[in-house]
UniProtKB/TrEMBL annotation:
One of its GO terms (molecular function) is protein serine/threonine kinase activity. It comes from Sphenodon punctatus (Tuatara). Pfam families: TAN. Residues 1-164 form the Telomere-length maintenance and DNA damage repair domain. GO terms for biological process: DNA damage response. This is Telomere-length maintenance and DNA damage repair domain-containing protein. InterPro entries: ATM_plant, TAN. It comes from the Eukaryota.
Length: 187
């Protein structure tokens, strides 16, 4: 396994947004096959096969490399370069959300602690938080806290960790309203 797998998934993701219907159709078939294989591998829990958790780890490495390249990029550039960087950041963010939702669509396949670590690592880094903070709050609320299986896997220490962060105020507010709307108690 390598970062090439994540790159292939990124290419597939980009092709799904292609203007040509035939290209999108081809990629949908490739994507369905990949998803089925990842589901089977994740269900079987064989250590040497590529599964959702493995791809998520490589996706995190890809995001880290992209963030480093953006962090060390020249700050004074043309408007078109700035627009390209913005587009790239949005693309990365939507790829992460898309990946998590695909992985957990049929059942929660990703490990809760991996998702929480990703969210907290992103929120604890000032530059990452500025770029991806809202998306991480959305992932936390919609893709972690709304999954009943994950509730039991979140330790008190973990929940105190992210609820104690000042940048999570927006998430706490949304969580309270989400819990109230769902009829949950104690949130």
């Amino acid at each position: 396994m390598s970062l090439a797998i994540v790159q292939d998934l990124l290419v597939c993701y980009r092709q799904l947004e292609n203007d040509k219907a035939t290209e999108r159709r081809k990629e949908v078939e490739k994507f369905k096959q990949t998803v089925q294989q990842l589901d089977q591998n994740s269900d079987s829990r064989h250590g040497k096969q590529l599964n959702w958790d493995g791809v998520f780890r490589y996706l995190q490495k890809y995001i880290q490399k992209e963030m480093e390249s953006l962090r060390f990029a020249k700050p004074n550039v043309s408007a078109s370069t700035q627009a390209y960087r913005q587009k790239k950041m949005q693309e990365i963010s939507s790829l992460v959300k898309y990946f998590i939702r695909c992985a957990n669509k049929r059942a929660p396949r990703l490990k809760c602690h991996e998702l929480l670590n990703y969210v907290m690592d992103t929120m604890n880094d000032a530059s990452s938080c500025a770029i991806y903070g809202d998306d991480c709050s959305s992932i936390l609320l919609k893709d972690i806290l709304s999954v009943r299986k994950y509730w039991c896997e979140i330790s008190k220490e973990q929940s105190c960790n992210w609820l104690g962060k000042p940048h999570m105020v927006h998430t706490k507010y949304n969580l309270q309203h989400h819990c109230w709307a769902q009829g949950w108690r104690g949130a």
